[in-house]
Specification:
262 residues; mainly beta; 6-stranded mixed sheet; 18 strands; 7% helix
Length: 262
């Protein structure tokens, strides 16, 4: 008899924890796009109230009351609204998303069946600005500026002597650069591959036509970008012109990295 009571007590404990434990959702959205945070309500009885609480860069409260058909917003951005009618689907819509929206979001639903919590964690992804440049000393620089998370950089043909540096910016973005001393006599074209959750790109630079490795008496020129081809994933190659590495991809940021001396 004691064993049966112990088993029943254990089952009751597990059931209580399963009922009270809130559901959890992880959402990754690219900056500038739309984020939709779901708050599923599966009961047939009408909900009495739905509330979103946001702990991102600021505290925000968005609520709906069924009895008064009333919505309230406290300290929330105008970019945060209900995706649908909150009495049927209280999903939260954020558009356009920016880095300040990152954080934890809690949806609470009150109905005659009880109170229910649904948690969401929002992560904002920022695609980097990518460039491939070279100087007269034969140094090629592939740079992914102000991305979140940091982009991965690799070279073709594979090179084990690259030098990488990165800068972490106050807003959470990262600028990463990879530099190699390229032998244009063996491989006239240098190609770098940038891999990032928001975008994958291939940049190629013809070093033989860039006037590299001139006389040592000539002063070294600043990094310049010539004959650059950018091939985004799933697109046909096309000639494009990219400027010298941006001095200010984000305001108050200077993402330019000098991997090695010119």
């Amino acid at each position: 008899m004691a064993q049966i009571r112990a088993v029943l007590s254990a089952l009751l404990f597990l059931l209580i924890n399963l009922v009270q434990r809130p559901a959890y959702n992880i959402v990754n959205v690219e900056a500038g796009h739309e984020a939709v945070l779901s708050c599923p309500y599966l009961f047939k009885v009408p909900l009495l109230m739905a509330t979103w609480k946001m702990k991102s860069s600021t505290y925000c409260l968005l609520a709906y009351r069924y009895d008064n058909n009333e919505t309230r917003k406290l300290n929330c951005s105008e970019r945060m609204t209900w995706k649908y009618s909150p009495d049927s689907d209280p999903a939260l819509r954020i558009y356009p998303v920016n880095l300040g929206d990152e954080g934890n979001y809690t949806c609470e639903i009150v109905s005659s069946e009880g109170n229910f919590l649904f948690l969401s964690s929002l992560t904002v992804i920022v695609p980097p600005t990518v460039t491939l440049s070279s100087n007269r000393s034969g140094v090629a620089v592939c740079q992914a500026s102000a991305g979140k998370p940091a982009a991965e950089i690799s070279w073709m043909p594979a090179n084990n002597h690259s030098t990488e540096k990165e800068v972490h910016h106050p807003n959470g973005t990262v600028t990463r650069a990879s530099c190699i001393d390229w032998d244009s006599s063996m491989h006239p074209t240098v190609t770098c591959l940038i891999t990032h959750p928001a975008t994958n790109k291939t940049l190629s630079l013809n070093l033989s036509s860039s006037g590299l490795r001139k006389s040592a008496l000539e002063p070294a020129a600043p990094f310049a970008t010539k004959n650059l081809r950018s091939t985004p994933q799933h697109e046909e190659p096309r000639a494009v012109e990219l400027s010298v590495v941006s001095e200010c991809v984000y305001q108050n940021h200077n993402p330019r990295i000098m991997c090695m001396d010119s």
